[in-house]
Write a structure and sequence with these properties.
The complex is a heterodimer of chains A (276) and B (188). Chain A is α+β, with helices and mostly antiparallel strands and 276 residues long. A five-stranded antiparallel beta sheet of chain A has the order 1-8-5-4-2, with helices on one face. Chain A has a five-stranded antiparallel beta sheet with strand order 3-10-9-6-7, with no helix packed on it. The radius of gyration of chain A is 21 Å and the shape is globular. By secondary structure, chain B is mostly helical. The N and C termini of chain B lie far apart (40 Å). The chains are: A alpha+beta (276), B mainly alpha (188). Chains A and B meet through helix 1, helix 3 and helix 4 of A and helix 2, helix 3, helix 4, helix 6 and helix 7 of B.
């Protein structure tokens, strides 16, 4: 790193930790080596704790909202911890798909939410709801299927970035909601990776960041053959995505990809407008 | 030693959510309420901060910082975003009160975070102007320009104080980070 970059990095990391950065400055920082250095923010947090005594209690209504938010995200953490959990051996088997929707429908019914679903005979299930006492969180595969069935989602299909090689048969789809800021990528045909040597990383090309610095959508590993469903973990707010990409990176991922090994691309061709 | 709450969250243990809220809910809410004047903004920031905590729990490294510091870092980022977005900053207490030495909060600090005590000690070694700038920006959420306006310290000097002071605290906490910025500047 040259002296100019080092100076700029020091300035931006200090400002990020003390007064925050503008979007343009955040992009500038993201392009610098060492931009993911948390040490300035951690030092500022420690100073805050040193100088300030928390006296407030979390209000109960806010606690309820936070707990509700946590349910799906923390369940998805378990899925990320063991990628095989979201690997679907044969997603085309109708029984499997039906069971997945049955679980989802039971959860939804138990919560008393009236949703209109038409896929996989869910309406029929609704007429004879199973005696589900505890709502079961959806797996990433189920959540993906559910989002795919909803109106107003941004959807794209994965295609291999190269026509030859071990990634030439990649397929699948990706679904994203601007409103909910969440989505799922379903990929078939990605080769298994050695997590000690490399990781897959998902990227979102969208309006706010531009094509040079797409948003990091999270890293994942593939340890089994089959279909993997990944919850997209957008590190910044994504707006109107035009393309998604999967690259191969070093373990832990990178802040800015050199795009040396692109595994798959999914261009958004049509974005269904949300229902009024 | 009990298993880290954040590690349990990263492993998908939903019971850890309650433990996390019991341990840090008041801290996160207090930070947001201190730095954001508008209660609705504060509640939004708290909700968003916890979503970030759930998503980023796997990145927590107990060898680097305590859970309280890690969660406070995430909270500050969300609160700063909110301040920048809304353009509303809490109306500060009189400047003379803010820059005074804080009272002894040592006991509370120990409960919350080991780094907080180390940071407090590091703060004492800073020049008074550096302490003032860090206190106004980090504890009271003022921008560098606002600090310059409020104190009469030139903006460039405010930036220098913030940078050198934070480098010194970072060094005292042993937070080397990825890039070595050296000790020379922090020592000035």
């Amino acid at each position: 790193m040259n002296e100019t970059d080092r100076e700029q990095l020091l300035d931006l990391l200090t400002r990020q930790a003390t007064e925050g950065l503008t979007p343009a400055e955040s992009r500038k920082l993201a392009a610098l080596e060492g931009s993911d250095d948390d040490s300035f923010d951690l030092a500022a947090a420690a100073l805050l704790l040193a100088e300030f005594e928390p006296t407030e209690q979390l209000p109960s209504h806010l606690r309820s909202k936070i707990t509700a938010d946590a349910s799906e995200i923390v369940a998805a953490n378990a899925g990320e911890k063991a990628p095989d959990a979201s690997v679907v051996a044969d997603r085309k088997t109708p029984l499997f798909a039906w069971l997945g929707w049955a679980v989802a429908a039971a959860a939804v019914l138990a919560l008393g939410i009236n949703l209109s679903m038409t896929r996989f005979g869910v309406t029929e299930i609704a007429n004879n709801p199973p005696p589900a006492a505890t709502p079961t969180p959806m797996t990433p595969a189920e959540a993906h299927d559910k989002m795919m069935a909803e109106p107003g989602m941004t959807v794209a299909k994965w295609a291999p970035a190269a026509k030859t090689g071990d990634m030439a048969n990649v397929s699948g789809d990706v679904v994203w909601s601007d409103k909910e800021q969440k989505g799922y990528a379903m990929l078939r045909g990605l080769p298994k990776n050695n997590a000690d040597a490399s990781t897959y990383q998902l990227w979102i090309f969208e309006e706010n960041q531009g094509d040079k610095t797409p948003i990091d959508g999270g890293t994942f590993n593939v340890s089994s053959d089959g279909t993997v469903v990944i919850p997209i973990d957008a590190k910044l707010a994504a707006k109107n995505p035009s393309m998604f990409a999967v690259t191969v990176e070093k373990p832990g991922g990178v802040v800015v990809s050199k795009r040396e090994k692109v595994a798959a691309l999914a261009k958004v061709e049509t974005s269904v407008p949300p229902e009024a | 030693m009990p298993e880290s709450i954040l590690k349990r969250i990263a492993a998908g243990d939903r019971n850890a959510v309650e433990d996390c809220l019991n341990s840090y809910g008041g801290l996160v809410y207090s930070i947001a309420r201190k730095l954001l004047a508008n209660e609705a903004d504060a509640e939004d920031a708290v909700q968003e901060a916890f979503i970030d905590v759930w998503k980023n729990a796997g990145r927590y490294d107990p060898a680097v910082a305590s859970e309280a510091t890690f969660i406070s870092m995430i909270t500050r980022r969300r609160v700063i975003d909110k301040i920048r977005h809304s353009g509303r900053r809490i109306s500060a207490d009189p400047i003379e009160e803010i820059v005074q030495e804080p009272g002894d909060k040592g006991h509370k600090r120990i409960e919350l975070s080991i780094e907080a005590n180390e940071a407090a000690e590091a703060m004492k070694t800073l020049r008074p102007e550096q302490q003032t700038v860090l206190r106004l920006s980090i504890v009271d959420g003022m921008s560098h320009q606002e600090i310059a306006d409020a104190t009469g310290i030139p903006l460039g000097t405010v930036k220098t104080h913030a940078r050198r002071g934070l480098l010194r605290v970072r060094e005292a906490l042993g937070l080397g980070g990825i890039i070595d910025f050296g000790n020379k500047e922090a020592a000035i």
